[in-house]
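Progress narrative, Year 2. Work on N/A from Ganoderma boninense advanced from sequence curation to structure prediction during this period.
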Amino acid sequence: MEKSEDKHSNSDISIEKKDLDGVEVTDDAIMAKEVEEFEERLQNDEAAEEEYLVEEAYEVALKVLSTRDEPELEAVTFRTIFLGLGFSAFGAVLAQIYYFKPQTLLVSQLFLLVLSYWFGGAMAILLPSRGLFRWINPGPFNIKEHAAIIIMASSAAVSATAIQVISVQDLYYNKKLNAGLAIFTLIGSQLLGYGYAGLLQDLLVKPTKCFWPTTISTANLFQALHYDNQMTSKRVRLFWTIFVVMFFWEIIPQWIFPLLTGVSIFCLANHTSPVFRNIFGGASNNEGMGLLSWCFDWNLIGSDCLFNPLWLQVNQDIGICLTYILMAGVYYGNIWRAKDFPFMSQAIFAEDGSQYNQTALLTNGKFDPVKYAELG
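Result:
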């Protein structure tokens, strides 16, 4: 009896250890086998409803993504380089132009993914693929080429951080950096970011509990477009249906009826009240906080709400609510004479409410403490 109790106790300890350690004590081969069996049940529509539920972070990748790999597929091809560089230039130019506008336009990774899928498929059909031209068109456009193109294009489709320093010196200090110095400054700042990313990947990327919903949804779309089976065919049809509907719908709020970008019942009821405009307005730049406004433009709503965890969205919503309270309290409480200035603005103002002349503080492009003491 005592031996049996010891055995039971050891079993409990083993189970407890497994529960505490989680995935780390699970053998990779066993996990791979479980994933393979789960994927087979999914494809045959034999998976139970409970199996779709995600309880742990690592299960997102296991239950959403396929472990299928084809080592013979080439990632670096003529199509990869041509389309990757082309979309990188397109995204970088567009992102940089709109960076200086009041309403920043981000080049969506989804947009680049779909566009490159079309172009890659077209090149696979139209380019010659025999004889000496085999290196130009090695076969059907594959998932590895597609992923490499998006890595290049999405990395370039953001404004370089160092551009702020270069632009401010030119706009406000009448100092133009040498073109070579400006280019190497941009390259250096970007490489510094990639260096930090490499140093932190063991902490923020490799642990199974550190999953990135945006990346997982993108990888899932890659597999849906390139892996032809029953499960992914349904997803592809659903994707293209939603894509077409959104394409035609966006014409309405963007061109025909822009009011749909921000509908406020309170502002429609009383459009002359500054208080209503500051609290409930928000369709235009620096108009208001947009509290309880309705937006019918998916371009502004975004897709984060579709794949981000609920706890993350609640955390963001709490922060937004606190911002509403803080901004309204500071302004209408007239803290620091807040009512003497606009409710929202990107400008700097003087004590009398006029726009502050920043250039008046400079002498030969450098800060002058004497002028600052005079102007305040």
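Strands lie at 362-363, 366-367. The first strand starts at residue 362 and ends at 363.
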